[in-house]
Model the fold of this input.
Amino acid sequence: MFETAELGRSLQKDEYESALPDLRARLVQAQIDLKKTPSRVLVIISGVDGAGKAMTVNRLNEWLDPRGVNTHAFDTPSDEERERPFFWRFWRTMPVRGRIGIFYGSWYTEPLIQTVYKKQKQADLDAAMRRIASQEQMLAEDGAIVLKLWLHLSKEAQYKHLKGLESDPHRHWRVLPTDWKHHRLYEKFIRVAGRMIRLTDRPHAPWNLIEATDDRYRDLTSGRLLLAAMEQALEVTKKTSAIGRRDAANPRLKITPVGRNRTILDRVNLKKSLSKDAYRKQLVRRQAEWNRLVWKAADKGVSNVIVFEGWDAAGKGSCIRRVTEAIDPRLFQIIPVAAPTEEERAHHYLWRFWKWLPRDGRVTIFDRSWFGRVLVERVEKFATAAEWSRAYAEINDFEEQLCRHGIVVHKYWIHLSKEEQLARFQKREKVKYKRYKITDEDWRNRAKWNAYKAAVNDMVAHTSTGNAPWTLVPGNDKRYARIFILKDLCKRLEKVLK
Amino acid sequence: MFETAELGRSLQKDEYESALPDLRARLVQAQIDLKKTPSRVLVIISGVDGAGKAMTVNRLNEWLDPRGVNTHAFDTPSDEERERPFFWRFWRTMPVRGRIGIFYGSWYTEPLIQTVYKKQKQADLDAAMRRIASQEQMLAEDGAIVLKLWLHLSKEAQYKHLKGLESDPHRHWRVLPTDWKHHRLYEKFIRVAGRMIRLTDRPHAPWNLIEATDDRYRDLTSGRLLLAAMEQALEVTKKTSAIGRRDAANPRLKITPVGRNRTILDRVNLKKSLSKDAYRKQLVRRQAEWNRLVWKAADKGVSNVIVFEGWDAAGKGSCIRRVTEAIDPRLFQIIPVAAPTEEERAHHYLWRFWKWLPRDGRVTIFDRSWFGRVLVERVEKFATAAEWSRAYAEINDFEEQLCRHGIVVHKYWIHLSKEEQLARFQKREKVKYKRYKITDEDWRNRAKWNAYKAAVNDMVAHTSTGNAPWTLVPGNDKRYARIFILKDLCKRLEKVLK
Done:
């Protein structure tokens, strides 16, 4: 695989210098054009030790307008990073639309090193590569250009390079102790890297092997590849004018037809109710149990993510209050999800949820969530059919990462009859301090009841997974719903803590 | 001091319930109005154990529209937080303009506990209170409403409360082991809290003592205080229409008159230069030394903040490159500072710099910085005279916090003659890939040379402090400037590491 990067390519100084002005001018121009698009660039710099990854990063930074570039060098993760799923640290440094992010070290580093050092098996490497490929595909489909550079040296070239540095009194500090260690592991490293590249070399995020024995050749090639990727993406954007449209021809999922059909929601028994007395007794009992379990989870470092979805006026807020008033405020946070801000729109739609994932042992409660993508964004056509069609798999991958990290994921849809909703709307409008809760939007949503019903049916069909199943809550009786949720939370958390 | 909060106040159920609808309606309305202003609210909830801080937080959350509120409960700091100055964790959770932030636990908690537990002396408490008072004043002057609630119980009331909870089988879990410990320390705790309150009870951020024996009285009083603070602030905003204008009558600093006067910049010897040969030799030597020192600092957990300011075309970018190409990319980040984004404008102007402070052992390089407040924002009148006048002290406080944490702060102004700048502008315009660096703005800035000179003089006069002095760099000869900076960086860091 690496033979094509061991051909002894090099560049004369005058060749290099004559090519540079045009390349730099076009790079800067492409940056200016990029700013006007919803696109963004992620450059991943990997390769063999001694191939000059850091120098290439510096060179790209020199050539580009630094105001449009973020460079991130990933070192040992901090505890805040270790206490979240693997990809969290990369999401927090993701470039926004219109900008370039350069990753020195990336999601490839850890799986590669772990496998070379025999801390994990090849199957683990393969599984990690599958997750990375999904992640990159998702970013690419969202309009990101994912440019992956592998800077290569043969074992011989690596040896020469390290020796050369060592004998230079002013540059010997550039040789790190791990460099020689890695040199001895060269064959193994290259074998694993080869597999890693093969499994993640995809049309939406291809690998580029660059021969790195000659600095000028390496730098100019990197710059040219970046330029080509940007110009190509700009060309596509120009033709299609919006990224969403680009995939208009993409395949879509079969969906539930909108109408009077039976859906999963018709299976929810809305007659369930609870007397005031029974409710009061149950509430103190369940809250005490929930409190005990949340403290135990905190001690064990088990975190919970709780998603609340449901019809307008289903009582999400009052359920959340019963869940949180029983636990220590230091252990939870509530994230109310409204229309995305400017900053959030400049990222992938999952970004704003990644951001709030709890540390180990904590609880995050989402009042509405990433499922907006396949509910309101689908019904209101804020997302294209291709976009929300692929969102089911994206969401499943996302939740899988949460579960892999040991987070307990709870998902509640609070169901309500159409009549009960009307009664609550009318009641709210009569109470002065609840009036703000009912807006024209709520009435508009209500008019689309059947469309939402179909969307909920598809959502449950596609995203109720083994580790993160949907729980449908009978919500016509508020007391019943609150106790139902507290019981379910306790049951699921207790099972994990056993 | 606390006598006024031990009067046995309470509220009948019907009184409470009849007051509630109006209070809630007005709170929600005030939130709606707040959104349209550049103001924001910070509610700090403190008080005696058992006084119901968490319950008050829940109650306020119930009454307010949750989409406009962020609640933060501060627990033990994470390592990312411990590795930054004390206030960092609070800045990262600060509410943006138009929103309400509720802090359960705050910057008061640690100094209070440390003093009660005798881990620090009263002088340390006093010093911490001085820093907190400055911080709160700065936020208030920026348009934040800082509402501080102290929920109070007498020792006797605390005892009754804890006993009552313990004997209730469903609520005994609400009593934490530390609660009894704190009860035994009650007198001490109250003495320290009293001093803390006295030292930070200021017109811009007053303390409100609330008697907390009766839940209804406590909650209603908290809600009413929040409402009053918001309505008052909205009244002020209405009258003045912009926060900046509010302080038009405020005192200003004496400043350097704009004109042909001698300034500190005239003391810089611009004739200094370095031959190409000498430069090359010095560069490898200084870079090797700088590399060695940065690794040593990383080992010791000493971080560096390096600020680059200077005239347009002074060569900041090329100096930064010489500084960074010698060090491991995992150890530093460069933050180019341009016009603030929407998100950044929704915060205090220092917020975006707090955000990027390095972890222990790392280096952050700011390419332009917080000094923009007293340079471009002053000259271009983006900030009012009162705003930039008080910025000197705000910046000194900010840098003091960095130094207190052990960060080495380096500040370079790269100086240039007006003639040399002209030559560089003209040269840049001739090179295709450098042309983007020269904009109309640069020419406009150049026309205001004397105004900037006066601003630089004031900046150096007011912010060149013992721990964070300004270094003026002769920049007419680029080679000389680069070596000068590398040498200075090494000298200053070496001194700290000794």
Remarks:
- The beta strands of chain A are 40-47, 69-73, 100-104, 144-152, 207-211, 304-310, 332-336, 363-367, 408-415, 470-474.
